[in-house]
Amino acid sequence: KVHSTSCGSLFKSLLKMGGEESVKLLGVWSSPYSRRVELALKLKGVPFESVEEDLSKKSALLMKCNPVHKKIPVLLHNGKSIVESLIILEYIDETWKGRPLLPQDPYERAKARFWAKFIDDKLMPGVWKTFLSKEEEREENKEEACELLRSLESELKDKKYFGGDDIGYLDIAANVVAFWIQRVESVVGIDLLNQDSFPILCKWIERLYHEIPLMKECLPPKEKHLVYIKTRYEAATATNGNL
C-alpha cells in the first residue's frame, strides 16, 4: 500500500503557481535508494527538484512527510508524500505513463517485484553482513552472499538487461548491486562480485555504465563516495553497526 499523506502548510511554499506540477525528491547524495528515484524520474523525463537531507539532523519536512520511518527517500508530488524507494518507483511509473518501467505482462511484472524485494530484503543484508563480518566468520558469510548473487544472476540469464532490451524497474532497483557493492569492495578489501564468479552480472554492469548515460549521471561522485564509504565502514566496524 502506498503511504500518501498531505503535509499541510509545510508544502504551501513548495507548490508552484499556475497549477503546474511540483515534484521534489528528499534524499541523500550517497544513498542508492535516493538514486533509484532520481534515475526513474530522469528516465521518465519528469522535472524535479532535489532536496538534500542531513540524516544527522533530520529536517522538519522529512519528519512530517515520513513520520513512520523518518527515512529517505521521500517523493513530494503536489503536496503529497510517497515513501519507500520501490513504492516510489511504482508510483512514478503509474503517474507518468511515458516509457514504462515495469513490464506490461502481469506475470513478468510480479517477477520484477519479487526480485526487487529479494535484493532489498535478502541479498543486500547478506552482502553487508559479509563486509562487516569478523575474519573467522567471513568465508561462511561470503559464500552465503555469493549464493544470493547467483540467484539474482540466474534471473538475468541471457537477457541484455533485467528489463529486456532496455533497462526497467528491476535494473533500477538493482543499482545497489551494480555499483555500490564494487565500491564498498574496494574499500574493505573483500572480493565478492567479480568477472570469474559472476560473468553475467558483470557484463550487465558494464552495459549499464557504458550504454545508459543516465545511469552514470545518477551515481555519486566516485572519489567523494569512496571517502564516505571508508568513514562509514570504520565507524560501523568499531561499533558492530551497519554500513
UniProtKB/TrEMBL annotation:
Domain of life: Eukaryota
Enzyme Commission identifier(s): 2.5.1.18
Catalysed reactions, semicolon-separated: RX + glutathione = an S-substituted glutathione + a halide anion + H(+)
Keyword Nucleus: no
Keyword Zinc in record: no
EC class name: transferase
PROSITE patterns to which the protein is assigned, alphabetical: GST_CTER (PS50405), GST_NTER (PS50404)
Domain GST N-terminal: 21-100
One GO-annotated biological process of the protein: glutathione metabolic process
An example molecular function term from Gene Ontology annotations: glutathione transferase activity
CC annotations in GO: cytoplasm
PANTHER family assigned: GLUTATHIONE S-TRANSFERASE U8, GLUTATHIONE S-TRANSFERASE, GST, SUPERFAMILY, GST DOMAIN CONTAINING
Protein name: glutathione transferase
